[in-house]
Structure formats: C-alpha cells, structure tokens
Amino acid sequence: MKNKKSKKIRYWALKIFIITLILTAVISVVTESLMDNLSAIAAAFIILFIVLLGIAFDIIGIAFASCDPAPFISMASKKIKKAKSAIVLLRNAGVVSNICGDVVGDICGIVSGAAGVAIALKVTIMDPGSGEMVWTIVISSIIASLTVAGKAAGKSIALKKNKEIVSFVSYVLMFFIRVDRKGAHNDRQKAT
C-alpha cells in the first residue's frame, strides 16, 4: 500500500513537471513575441494582466483547499448541476489547488518577472543613459510587490468567500466535466 502511494506521488510530480515545462514555454514564447512588438506602456499592461491572472488562480486554489463540501453535497441532493461538478473538484481539492496555485500561479510569477526584465531592456534601449540595472530593480520590485500584495489580499478573499468561488468555478467548469448521477467523475476513456 505504501509503495503504491509513493509511486502515485512520483507519477504526479513527474506529470506536474511536464505540464509546468510545457505551459511555461508556451506562455513565455507568447509573452516574448508580444513584448517585442509593443511599447513599454503596452508591455506593462500585459505584465499587469499576467500578475492579476496569477493572483486569480491563487485565490481559486486556496478557495478549493479551504472549502467545506457539505453545502455542495446538499445542493447535489436537490439536483443542482453545478454542485455535482463542485463535488468532483472538491474531492480533488489537492490537485486543483496545486494546479491553480502552484502551477499557474508560479508560472505567472516567473513569466511576469522575465517580462519585466524585457521591459527594462526596452526602456534602456530607448534611453541609454538611464541604466539597465536601475530599471531592472525598479520594475522587478514593482512586479514582486504587486504579486505579493495581491496574493495576500486574495488569500483573505478566498478564505471568506470560498463557497462562492468554488460555486462560480464549478459552474464554469461543469460544461467540461462529465459527472454521473452520483456525482462521480466519468473518465472519457471509460466511456469509450
């Protein structure tokens, strides 16, 4: 039994490694290609979007990790569709939290930092006497401050409004998750 758990953990870690590698590469390529063609101001808005995306996914991850499934079980007994998808997601709260907070949230943090360096280089090229190091420090400090402050505020929102967040995310995702009458997740492979 212990060996199975150990294998499952190693498999999950490998899976997350591959997913993170691919997602980071794709997001980095898209961000870098956008940064090349934009002004420093427009690039700053893209970085702000990436930071806000990371904060939003962190909020979702915390909401799922802290939410009590009892209200959704009650709603599912009343045949409320989004409750069934919420139960499926809450049964996998560790995975949802890991993907939202660690994978997407951390990727957004890393990509926004790298994009900040690209903006610093762009500003330095436009104004060669301004000093690349100063701009890099200023921009990376602003990005880090926004990210940390946003996640700090987001944590309290996620803990206070976890049921509403889980309900909203479940409603959005219920169109992509197939559940049977008992609320159990149906694998597409089992259906074929």
Quickly list its features:
192 residues, mainly alpha
The geometry reads as elongated
Count of helical stretches: 8
End-to-end span in angstroms? 30 Å
Number of domains: 1
Report the order of strands and helices: HHHHHHHH
Strand content: under 5%
Tally of DSSP β-strands: 0
| Cα-atom radius of gyration | 20 Å
Helix percentage range: over 70%
**What summary fits the major beta sheet?**
none
Give a structural overview.
The structure is a single chain. The radius of gyration is 20 Å and the shape is elongated. The longest helix is centred in the N-terminal third of the chain and has 36 residues, at 2-37. Helix 2 (40-66) runs antiparallel to helix 5 (93-126), helix 4 (81-91) crosses helix 7 (162-173) and helix 5 (93-126) packs antiparallel against helix 6 (132-160). Mean pLDDT is 82; it is low at 181-192. The protein has one domain (2-185). It is built from eight helices and no strands. It has 192 residues and is mainly α.
Question: Secondary-structure map with pairings?
Answer:
Elements: H1 2-37, H2 40-66, H3 70-77, H4 81-91, H5 93-126, H6 132-160, H7 162-173, H8 188-191
Summarize the structure.
The protein has about 190 residues and is an all-alpha fold. The protein has eight helices and no strands.
